[in-house]
Structure formats: structure tokens, C-alpha cells
Specification:
alpha/beta, 11-stranded parallel beta sheet, about 15% helix, UDP N-Acetylglucosamine Acyltransferase, domain 1, 10-stranded parallel beta sheet, homotrimer
């Protein structure tokens, strides 16, 4: 959407160095920007690309303004400011209210008049869909769910049953919310399923990635607090509790009854096991799994970066011979 | 469903200490239980919650009965007994027989009169659907499949082709059964696809989690035996064979042609590679991958718990300097 | 499809030792083959099964021909030759052109007359579907996508928006292409979503596995070059670039802006992080993650095979005591 630099500066209260009547109509990287692009400089790693940018304007810190060959929008947090401006320049699509002819809505469901229900979507008994919600094509929302205003389910999302979702949440395709937890009791004849009768409660402003699964509680609910961001292919087991504004990258896993604090960050393929409680502001590095209650904020890790395989194999062989090495040192000490 | 303690005790043949006419109408944890709740005490870790429970009745061991302030149902295996009773108190939903107007059934398919086929579901050529089966909304069952009695596909499940499933199996949303195995032959011009012409055979009483994928065999079938339980986001490659009553937690992966025994347990993000055979009763810990034939039952592991990142980095640096340490010890020994 | 050995030999230009009029009508393993089966011997590990095979014919190297009790088709690359012949013997199913009555096609979309659009499929605005493409049941292709000729989407695939796909690509169920990248900017009040405005460009002859997700670019496109093969449950983040003919096994993850060269191979549960660039012809072993720019072709690893848990625990304990061991050796050296 074409928007002038003057309007951007006014809307977001930031200083403009340049012509307020120039308009931007898209976003781009510093190197690929055209004369209609808004771009940004947030990390020093990209400073060298600034002098040659062809953008209409760059969002950047005051200290970088002198090196900017085009208009500059000044912000102490240029990445955040860019994010907000980009949402205005490249607005999310809008959807006409109404229910598509191929969608199926249970008689006892209530769908807000302003909501959009797309082709092949299915909405179950006693479920309510809030104002301006967008239920994308192929999405199934089962019985006894409450969907807040302005939520969007892109396509082929499955909300199983007994799920409550706040406002402005975004669900990417293949996300599954409210599937049965993995509850099984062993007998001599095999496993007996433990009925999973809890629900899922999701706050507002939550985003859930493609093909991520969040199980319902066994008893009581699985809880995702406000502002949580979850990437693709993440597993959240029954009765997990994720604190507000925690961010979880792809392929993470959280075992049953884990409690995670606020503002935590989990890098890809990390997670937590053993029913533990993790305090606020914990960062877990890629491929690293917390196994004990964690009461100190900070960064945690247990991963080894990949190395050339031959060198790695030797290293593993040495690791295996540590017992002998300890014994040899003991012998030497005697 | 309201049910009296007397009926529960009679149905499951366990001793009741308390009033047989009291009814329960739901399940809860010890701490959240109300006067209509059934709950249980299975682990000593929760014993301290017993004296203050407000439940109608607690399933517990005889040794815990004295400390129980409410009615008690006595069992040597309280978790199993609770699971069975909960299935009666909170029965699975029932579905009216019939095919929804928006579902599509191939002419050559045969669907039992007692089966339920939900909105937007699709059933392919020559496929048969057994008695009382429930094909949930958005589920696609492709051609040449045989689905046993009382199976349920919650929603948006994909059964690709040539899949045979026994009775009473449960498939959570996003599960994919019978997708092509990852078979590629390298040529100087790139990969040539190796046709994946096998099927998948699944026994009875199997449960498959959300967004789990089980590939068809390249030649011959991929096999999942009776009573297997598979959690979310698990990958089962072509020609894998999983023995009866094995349980597999989320994010596990099994490479092609792996054979796993009966009653094994794989914790989250574990698995097996290298076409190996694993005997019965093997337990693999989280993040640990079996790489060799395994003939001894027991517990296997190769994971490092996450530690504070600074301490971990030092530890990794020491690990990298092991070669030098071995050399120094050798020098000292001379 | 019945086909004579003579026709196979002629079509693929390979020597036949045996009766050209014998027909094959399926494929099988050496041990399970019947008198109508085509099979192959590629690895010495299976040589012992050759003398007793009941196959109609075996694709094998000239050196193995003498030991073959049935007809032999000679090739220097028997696995590749088998793959090509199997595609003829077991051809992919064909689909009648046309759009199913329950499918939904946007008015502004253009679907080739020869394409097949199955039940409950949905195709969005301004999207074009190429000749002979097969859009399987429940598949959703969003707006502004270009789908090349002869592509096939098996079932329940989600192509979100702004995705360009070449010819002859194959997408397995649950695959999600073009979902938003995981872009969030931290503020004191929580995360602000960074609009993900790029697309995805996929070359020709690409195969994408079940429940794999490929995010759109934040700015600019995520790129998958020709001939790439991706297995199930893989995560490809925004702005990743995967070079031609690279193969990626199940449960791998690639963090944002990773650039991977041509002909690389990633084993299960491996990947790359930190915005790195990886050269051509790199092989990464299972559970191993590249963390730095990689300029040397070859094999990389950082995984520990699972061991009996008790022995492993001792090993980990020794690893934790390495600091002390280094100190003790230093003391001895003084």
C-alpha cells in the first residue's frame, strides 16, 4: 500500500531525514531495494550495504544516518520500528465476511457475522467464532471451542475440541491444537489408554507455526499464555504451561507437565523433559534439553557443533577411553 | 456420565471403602477435584495432596487407604484402574452413522452402514471402511485401503494408499500413513526416484499421534504391530517394523528398514538408524539414537543434559583438547 | 503393467541374459520375488540371496551374472537401472482431467484443462495450475501461486501464497509451503511480528515429504533448486537456499538464511544454524548440526551413538570431571 515517509514518521513518532512526500510501496533488503522500497539497518553486519542502497528510505539508528544515501527514518530500535512500519506498508490481506458454500457449520455453533469461513472448512458443535476471525480453507474446528476476535487459521489447521483461544492469534497450516496427550498405562496385556479429558487454553497475540502440535491436558488444561510465539514442527505435550512472550523455534519438544516461564527463548530442536519448572528469561541453545528444574535465568546448552567426521570419530574414541585416562593419571599420582 | 462408586467397584472388581451410592461425573487431579470427581493416587510424589482432596473417590493402593479422607477404590495398579474407570466416566463421543453431504466416496469404495463419514472427508477407490468407524472431517483415505471396525480418524488425517489397518485404531489430526518412502538413486544428472510400491500394515489397538508420518514400504510393507502407541511428529521410514506394544514419544525418527522389538520404549527425539534390529524390551532415552543391532534388553542413552552455556563451552573446549591431554599423560608415563 | 524383458532391455539399452519374451508385472525383493517379479542386486550384503531367488529377472552387475539363477539385466548401476525400470513396471497412477464438484476454484485462478483437481481441494486467487498437474483431495493452494506442469500434490497439502513451483514436483500429504517465517522483534511489551512478505521458489523435479514445512522469505524468497529431495517432517526456515540435487532426510532443520550447496546430503535430525553458507558436496551425519560456514566438501558429524545407560552415565560423569583431570595432569607435569 503506497504510504508517504511523512505519514510513517508521524504515525510512529520517529524523526525523518528526507522528503516527507516520497512514498514507499513495499519492503526489501538494503541490496535489493528499489526507489519504492522501505528497508532497515539494524545490525552492524550489514553496514557496508548501506552506502549503495537504492531504497526510498532506511529505518536506522541516528548514528548511522550520516552514511545513509537516501531518506532515513530514525529509531533506537530500527528492527522493531521496521516491523511496525512494514505491517502498514504490506498489510495482511482482508477477507469478506461470510461462510463459503462448501463449509460446514454445526447447528449449535455460533459464528460472528463479521467472520470469514472459507471453502471446505468445518466447525463443530457448540463452538463460537469471534468477530473478524478468518477460518481458512480446509480448517477443522471441533466441538466446544471458543475462538477470539481477529484470530486467523491460514489453512488445513485442526483444532480438536475444548480449546479456548484469545484474540488476534495466528495459526499456520497443519497446526494441531487439542490432540490427545500421550497417556498410556502399562498392563501385562499391553497399554491401556488414559482418557485425555482436559482442554487447551491459549491467550491473545499468540502465533503457532506450521505442523506444530499442542496436546490437550490429561486432566486440567495445557496453557499457552499471551504473546507466545511458536515456530514450525514443535511438540507441546499434555499439561505443559508456556509463560507469556516465550519464543520457541522449530522442532522443539516439551514433555508432559513442563512449566516454562515468561520471555524464555528455545532455539531449534531444543526443549525440556521430566515435568520440570523453568523460571523466566531462560535461553536454551539449539539441540539442548533442560532436564532439571531451572531457577536461574541465563543461557543453557549441551550441543556439540558438527566437525569433520574423521576428526570427530577420533574425538569420540578418546571420550570412550576417558576411564583409562583417569586410571592412568591416578597411577601417576601414586 | 454419572456413575455410582458401587457400579465402578463391581464393574472392575475392586474393593470400595465408602458409600456405593455416591456418583462421580468427571475426573480431576487430587488438588482440583470436586465432590463429583474421580481421581487417583499412583505415585508417592503426590501423597501429600491426598489428605486435602475434595474428590468423591480416589483410586489408590490399599496402603494409602488410611490417609484417604474420602471414598477409596482399592487397586494394586491404581493408574491402570483409573484409566479404565475414566473411560467409563468420560466416554468417547459417539457419532451417528452416515455420510455427510460434503463427503466424497468413490463408487468402488465400501463403507459400513454403521460408519460415520464427516464433512469434507474423501474416500478412494476400492477402499473399505469397517463397522462403526469414524472418518473425521477433512480426512482423506486413498485407494486400496482396508480400515477395520471401530477405527477413528479425528480430522485432517491422510491415509495415502494400500494401507491395511486393524480394529480400534485411533489417528490424530495431521497423521500421514502410506506416504512414499525416501528412495532415491544417485546419477551424474541427479537423483532418480525409486518407486515406492509397498504398503503399510497396522495391527489393532494402535494409536498414532498428530502430524506423525509413516511411509509405505519400498518393496514389501512397513509394519506396525498390535497395541503400538506413537506420539506426535514421529517419522517412521519405509520398511520399518515396530513390534507389538512398543511406545514411541514425540519427535522420534526411525530410518528405513529398522526392526524394533516388542514392548520397547523410545523417549522424545530418540530413534534408530542403519537398518538395525533391536530386540524386545529396549528403552531408549531422550535424544539418543541406536546405531547398531541391539540384542540386550535394557536402557540406552547418549544425551547430555543442558548446562549453563558458559560452563558448557569450557567443557566442550576441554573435550576438544583431549588429544593433547592423552599425549601429555603418555609423556608423563615415560 | 506387464512388460517383457526384451522391451526393458531395449528401452534402457542394457544387456539381457535370458528369454526376452518373459514378462514382469511387479517388483519384489530377491527373497520375496515371484515368477512375475523384477528385482535387483546392488549391494554385496544381499549376494547370498541371489542363488535362491524366484524372480523373473534380476538387475545386477555383470560380475554377478554367473550366480544368477534366472534372467539377468546387466547394468553398472543396478539400483539406478532398477529405479528406472520399476517406474515403467509400476507406473504412477493417472488421473482424469477435470475439477471435482466439491473443489473450489477462485474465479481469477487458471487451471489447465488437462489438470485434475480432486474433492475438497481449494485453489486461490490469481493462481495458475499447469498441464497434467494433480491437485489431490483436501489440498489448499492459496493466492498468487504458479504451479508447473505435471506437479502432483497427493492430499491435504497446503501451499500458502506467492509460491512458484517448476515442473514434475511431488508433494506428500501435510507438506506446508510458504508459511510465515519466524520473524519477531522484541520490545519491552513483548514480540512484534515482522511481516513475512517474501515467497518460495521451487525448481523442477523436487520432492517434498509428508508434514515438511518450508517458510516464505521475510524479504525476498526462500529457494529450493532443481532436483532437491526432502523427506518427512523437515523444517526449512525463511530465506534458506537449498542447492540443486541436495537430499535432506527426515526431521532435519535449517535456520533462517542458511545457504546450502549442491549435491549435499543431510542425514536424519541434522541441519544447519547461524545464517551460514555451506559449500557443495557436504554430507552431514545424523543428529549433527553445522554451525559455521563450511568451505570444504566432505563428511561432518557431532553425534554420539546410544550406549547402555549405566555406562553412558559414568562416561558423562567423567566428562564433567575433565577440568579436574586437566588440573591434575598440570600438577604432575610440574
Amino acid at each position: 500500500m503506497p504510504i508517504s515517509l511523512g505519514e510513517l514518521a508521524t504515525t510512529f513518532g520517529c524523526e525523518l531525514i528526507g522528503d516527507p512526500d516520497v512514498t514507499v510501496n513495499g519492503v526489501a533488503s538494503l541490496t535489493n531495494a528499489s526507489s519504492e522500497s522501505l528497508t532497515f539497518l539494524s545490525s552492524a553486519a550489514y553496514s557496508s550495504q548501506l552506502p549503495s542502497t537504492k531504497a526510498a528510505a532506511v529505518v536506522l539508528r541516528a548514528a548511522d544516518a550520516d552514511a545513509c544515501p537516501v531518506s532515513a527514518l530514525i529509531s533506537d530500535s530500527p528492527y522493531v520500528m521496521y516491523a511496525r512500519m512494514a505491517a502498514l506498508v504490506c498489510p495482511a490481506p482482508t477477507f469478506a465476511p461470510g461462510v463459503h458454500a462448501t463449509a460446514t457449520i454445526a447447528e449449535s455453533a455460533r459464528v460472528a457475522d463479521s467472520a470469514h469461513v472459507a471453502a471446505s472448512a468445518v466447525i463443530g458443535d457448540r463452538t463460537t467464532i469471534g468477530e473478524n476471525a478468518v477460518v481458512g480453507p480446509g480448517t477443522v474446528i471441533g466441538p466446544d471451542c471458543t475462538i477470539g476476535d481477529n484470530c486467523r487459521f491460514i489453512a488445513n489447521v485442526s483444532i480438536v475440541k475444548n480449546v479456548t483461544i484469545g484474540a488476534r492469534c495466528l495459526f499456520h497450516p497443519g497446526a494441531v491444537i487439542g490432540s490427545d496427550g500421550f497417556g498410556n498405562a502399562m498392563t501385562p496385556e499391553g497399554w491401556v489408554k488414559v482418557p485425555q479429558v482436559g482442554g487447551v487454553r491459549i491467550g491473545s497475540d499468540v502465533e503457532i507455526g506450521a505442523n506444530t502440535s499442542i496436546d490437550c491436558g490429561a486432566i486440567g488444561d495445557t496453557v499457552i499464555e499471551d504473546g507466545v510465539r511458536i515456530d514450525n514442527l514443535v511438540h507441546i505435550a499434555h499439561n505443559v504451561h508456556i509463560g507469556a512472550h516465550t519464543a520457541i523455534a522449530a522442532l522443539c519438544g516439551f514433555a508432559g507437565s513442563t512449566t516454562i516461564g515468561k520471555r524464555c527463548m528455545f532455539a531449534g530442536n531444543s526443549g525440556a523433559v521430566n515435568h520440570i519448572t523453568v523460571c523466566d528469561d531462560v535461553i536454551v541453545m539449539s539441540q539442548s534439553v533442560l532436564t532439571k528444574d531451572t531457577t536461574t535465568p541465563g543461557v543453557y546448552s549441551s550441543s556439540f557443533p558438527a566437525k569433520p567426521a574423521r576428526a570427530w570419530a577420533k574425538q569420540v574414541a578418546r571420550f570412550r577411553r576417558l576411564e583409562g585416562l583417569f586410571a592412568r593419571v591416578k597411577r601417576l599420582e601414586k
